[in-house]
Amino acid sequence: MWRRVFDPSGPNVELVDNGIPNMSLAQETPVTPTRPPASRNGRWSTFTHLLIVRMKELKREPEVVFWVFGFPMLLALGLGIAFRNKPADVTFVAIVQGSRAQDALSLIDRSPQKSSIHAEVVDKPAALKGFRLGKYDLVVESDGKGGFQYLYDPARPESVLSRAEVDDALQVSAGRKNPLPTSSVASNEPGSRYIDFLIPGLIGMNLMNSGMWSIGFALVDMRQRKLLKRFVATPMRRSDFLLALAAGRLVLMIAEVGLLLGFGALVFHIRVLGSLLSILILSAIGAVGFAGLGLLTASRAQKIESVSGLINLIMMPMWIFSGVFFSYERFPAAIQPFIRALPLTALNDALRATILEGAPLEKQAGRLLILLLWGGVSFLLALRLFRWT
Amino acid sequence: MPPAIECRDLRKTYDGKVEAVRGLSLEIEGGECFGLLGPNGAGKTTTIEILEGLLDPTSGEVTILGHTWQKNQREVREWLGISLQETRLSEKLTVRETIELFASFYREPRSAEEVLDDLQLGEKADAFVGKLSGGQRQRLAVATALVGNPRILFLDEPTTGLDPQSRRQLWDIIRNFQRGGGTVLLTTHYMDEAERLCDRLAIVDHGQIIAEGTPSELIERLGGHHVVEFEASGNSSHGAALQTWRALPGVESVRHDNGLVSLTVREPHLTIPALLDAVGKHGSQLLHLTTRQASLEDVFVNLTGRHLREQ
């Protein structure tokens, strides 16, 4: 018979034929582990460790830091500069060469609107070509009966504006007396500018982006790496794992919202009328809601590629319809109910009302309900569908 | 004392078609190191994952230290340390952070420092997992299994793809765990690993156990402890010639593979002179002759006609 002899000093096992019946280590040592435990873990040890580890991992991925914090600020900066309040737009007008061209030009020059109208006299082909290419907003030509004829494009807002502006200028210079005296004041007060509209929208979009990506992507990545399976092979409570993910989102949410809001206030002098607490509560509901949607997206996907497609598919309509960069009021009335039911629309509307108008949360119950429903329903669905392996 | 791991008539069918496990029963005593040996695709991983409670069997029963997965999942998990075949741990965490994370999942874990020392990872404690070598990663995987102070250690192909030195390091770690009273269940397709490490093993093929016993028992069952391999000129590996070799004194079985003839023999000192005579009478010349001790590989080939490493 062969007996296996272990030599504690060396790594190799010898096989020795010594005629003793087979004996294994099992019979020589007790079955219970001999080591005393080093410590007892408390109820929240798993949760805290998972949360800390998640924060460390994020911190150690520079690209994550960029996409979560740097990118939205760059976007706000770029768009804020592009759409900053400029002097009133100048309209470009071509006057077709001919007998009355000089008349038109001098009428415009004498009008009160002369500073906002840039008119030049060109021949007809040049005028038409320039109009086609967008160099001119309007073409003015003698109508042969002592008056003028406007060539404009009703589909181009600036062309329509230009026609009204030039017509006014010509009529007033030619002696029209307005029956009702009116005056206008230009506004560039904080609160009504494009950047004021934009910053809450960017906060909402960022809460959606990072909620969907950081939860959806992270989970599928862990599933693909068999790390989820490895975790559930331990006594780890699955609820602690999900709770740590959600808590991680909240910590990041505070940083995201704080940075964008602070950036808007410092660089663009945005006035925050709502209370910070309301903004935080609102953002937290948004962050957790989108985390639920992210969890649902990631509940089955086995590959990063498939979950990426899914996330983009879900976010795409909201980028377009939910009023991040421009108001959704311009979409047809028929789809307005659908737009208002989207979670990002509800979040953006609520953020704008709170930040820009100081509306209290209790006045926004409908929007909060939409957010909570999206988050809650996706979370419950995700729990049913979720695969750990 | 109930057995550490017991299963009865396990079956697993994927999508109603592929039968990965077909009626497999095992009983592993506390303190044993038990090996599931078999080629790739034999159903080893499916079996071990069912035993680990990560896969539900299509039918059959599993008990771990007398408890079932259905009733005592959380309790049972406290007793197990598991290393899966391919887990990629987070690369941006350090070795110590990874071990501490896994320690936090258990009620009464071992200290991370102690586990680091035991697994010779002390020097790498603050290195990122992404910077570790294959052997170090595998040791870390086992460390995450050991940090919970388990009574049973499950290892799925723990040394696949490792260099010889790393393999020996892992064997030491496994033996140390066993010496401390732990039970080990491992899968492997390395017969030397099974031979050196396991007190008992089951050879698995096509989802069934085709042989079970201590390594020496299994080899014993071949009928001979020695293998004589030779190659001779002429038709040494065809029909009539094979009959001649089979009839030589002390020969238990004959195999041939690409002109190489292998004889399983009980007493080489009787067989070899007779073989030399027979080759002479046959009118051919020996091109090559070796003798070696029989291994589990021979057992496997004898049982299935295939080699372990063949796909």
Could you please describe the fold and organization of this structure?
The complex is a heterodimer of chains A (389) and B (311). Chain A is an alpha/beta fold. Chain A has 2 domains: 91-173, Periplasmic binding protein-like II (D-Maltodextrin-Binding Protein, domain 2, 3-Layer(aba) Sandwich), CATH 3.40.190; 190-385, no CATH class. Chain A has helices at 45-59, 62-82, 101-110, 124-133, 157-173, 194-224, 227-232, 238-268, 276-297, 304-321, 336-341, 343-357, 365-385, and strands at residues 2-6, 13-17, 91-96, 117-122, 138-142, 148-151. In chain A, the strands form 2 sheets. In chain A, strands 4-3-5-6 form a 4-stranded mixed sheet, sandwiched between helices. A two-stranded antiparallel ribbon of chain A has the order 1-2. In chain A, helix 2 (62-82) packs parallel to helix 8 (238-268) and helix 6 runs antiparallel to helix 10. The longest helix of chain A has 31 residues, at 194-224. Chain A starts with a strand and ends with a helix. The relative contact order of chain A is 0.10. The model of chain A is unreliable at 1-34 (pLDDT under 50). Chain B has 311 residues and is α/β, with parallel strands linked by helices. Chain B folds into 2 domains: 5-214, 3-Layer(aba) Sandwich (Rossmann fold), CATH 3.40.50; 223-293, Alpha-Beta Plaits, CATH 3.30.70. Chain B is 35% helix and 28% strand. Chain B has 11 helices and 13 strands. In chain B, the strands form 3 sheets. In chain B, strands 5-6-7-3-8-9 form a 6-stranded mixed sheet, sandwiched between helices. In chain B, helix 6 (164-179) links the parallel strand 6 (152-156) and strand 7 (183-188). The radius of gyration of chain B is 23 Å and the shape is elongated. Chains A and B meet through strand 1, helix 1 and helix 7 of A and helix 2, helix 3, helix 6 and helix 8 of B.
